Amino acid sequence: MKSVEWTDAMSVGSDVLDGHHKMIIDCLNRLQPLIGSEEREADIASVVEALEEFVLIHFSEEEQCMKKAGYPDWQAHKEQHDRMFDIVFGLKADLDHGRTIDAERLFELFYDWLLQHILGEDRKYMSYIANPTPHPTAQWSGTAG
Ligand SMILES: [Fe+2]
Ligand SMILES: [Fe+2]
C-alpha cells in the first residue's frame, strides 16, 4: 500500500490548520505498516494518542477560525467535529479497557476523514478565511412589485 502524501490541493489556505491536517497524514502513514501485523498494540496506542492530540488541538482552533471569518455553516461543521471527537475518545476508552483496535479499521476510518472531512468539508470555509470580511447571509430575492 502506498504512503499518503500531502499535496497543495489539500490546503485550506492556513499554514496552522494545514499543519494540523498533516498530523492525520502522519497517523495514516504510521498505521499502514501495522496493518496485518500482530502484537503491535503499543504502536497502535501511540497513534491513537496522536489522534487524541489532533482533535484536542485542531478542532477548537478551526472552529475559532471559521467563526472569525464569518463562515455561515460553522455550527454544522462543529457538529461533525463533535462526532469525530467522540470516536477518538471511544477508541481511547477501548484501549484503556484492554480492547484490541484493528489497524486496518483505524486506517480506513481516518482515511475517510481525510477524504470526506478535510478535503470535502474543511475546504468549504477556505474562501472565507482567505477573505474574512462579513459575507452576506441572505441574497436579495428580487421580487417584482
Ligand atoms: Fe480540519
Ligand atoms: Fe473540520
What is the overall silhouette?
A: globular
Q: Helix content range of the residues, please? A: 55-70%
Q: Under CATH, the topology is which?
A: Four Helix Bundle (Hemerythrin (Met), subunit A)
Largest sheet: number of strands, sense, barrel closure: none
List the helices and strands and how they pair.
Layout: H1 15-31, H2 41-69, H3 74-96, H4 103-121, H5 126-130
Helix pairs in contact: 1-2, 1-4, 2-3
The structure holds fe (ii) ion (2 copies).
The site of one fe (ii) ion has 5 residues, from helix 2.
Explain what you see.
With 145 residues, the chain is an all-alpha fold. The protein contains five helices and no strands. It has one domain (9-130): Hemerythrin-like (Four Helix Bundle (Hemerythrin (Met), subunit A), Up-down Bundle), CATH 1.20.120. The protein has helices at residues 15-31, 41-69, 74-96, 103-121, 126-130. The longest helix is centred in the middle third of the chain and has 29 residues, at 41-69. It is globular and about 55 Å long. The chain starts with 14 loop residues before the first helix and ends in a 15-residue tail after the last helix. The mean pLDDT is 90. Residues 21, 58, 62, 118, 122 line the site of one fe (ii) ion (FE2).
Brief summary:
It is built from 5 helices and no strands.
